[in-house]
Specification:
With about 260 residues, the protein is an alpha/beta fold. It is about 55% helix and about 10% strand. The model has no long low-confidence stretch (mean pLDDT about 90).
């Protein structure tokens, strides 16, 4: 009978600690195995009671799996870069309200399936704020989908032509948070408008959308390009949405100037 690492018999010649580590790794208890290895080079195990030592091993395994789950969510989100709420610079004058950001950082708006719009000119930090909130959502165990809006709509047009768009839309729909970065930077065409409407219709009242755009919300109606579709889209996303309107100069230019 063939065997593999899960079914291979334990080698009795090994010492007990090696056998324990072997079994932990076979059962994919990698966090516990790492902790147990650490304990072998310290006096912690000798000083701890059996129940406290077991509790410590289990907590290390839990931490390992939690971190692995977070990293998996971050990979699946496909963020363009890393961004963290702790790195937000509130000293820059751009109309960013720290109290509002801290309320948004609680992610209650996602739990309530509410939307968030971050608007402002190029370089004011819209994408950074959106990505930082996306990272926070992943760290809280919320599946997130990040995409440049024009690239996503372009890809979905291709998927529609191939007959695979329903599968692609289901991937997006499963995520409590959808981040559409730079929406309306490129005008929507006749094929993209109904696709965007489908995405919004699927999420209306059920899942959150975070939009960043250089165009003010008041101009989105014209940016959509079709009055009927514009009415349908805006009616579903604007009401009760949170809004951040960034002002001032480009943060990138200011930082670049300081580094010269």
């Amino acid at each position: 009978m063939e065997t593999n690492e899960k079914t291979a018999p334990i080698t009795v010649e090994k010492d007990r600690n090696t056998i324990s580590l072997d079994l932990m790794n076979r059962m994919k208890l990698h966090g516990m195995a790492a902790a147990f290895t650490e304990s072998l080079s310290s006096t912690f195990a000798d000083a701890a009671t059996p129940d406290s030592f077991l509790g410590w091993l289990l907590s290390r395994e839990w931490d390992y799996r939690s971190e692995a789950a977070i990293q998996r969510l971050i990979r699946m989100a496909s963020f363009r870069y890393r961004a963290y709420l702790e790195e937000i610079d509130y000293t820059i004058s751009r109309g960013l309200d720290r109290n509002q950001m801290e309320r948004l950082a609680s992610l209650e708006f996602i739990r309530k399936a509410q939307n968030l719009f971050i608007t402002g000119s190029s370089g004011t930090g819209k994408s950074f704020l959106a990505t930082a909130l996306g990272y926070q959502a992943c760290k809280s165990g919320m599946r997130t989908f990040y995409a440049n809006a024009s690239k996503l709509l372009g890809a979905l047009k291709v998927a529609k032509a191939k007959g695979t768009i329903e599968a692609e839309l289901r991937k997006i729909e499963r995520c409590p948070l959808l981040i559409l970065d730079d929406l309306f930077l490129v005008p929507l065409d006749a094929k993209e408008r109904p696709i965007l409407l489908d995405i919004i219709e699927d999420r209306h009242g059920r899942k959150s959308i975070l939009v960043t755009s250089q165009i003010p919300v008041s101009n989105w109606y014209d940016a959509i390009g079709d009055p009927t579709v514009a009415d349908a889209i805006l009616d579903r996303i604007v009401h009760e949405a949170h809004q951040i309107e960034l002002t001032g100069e480009s943060v990138r230019k200011m930082k670049a100037g300081k580094n010269k």
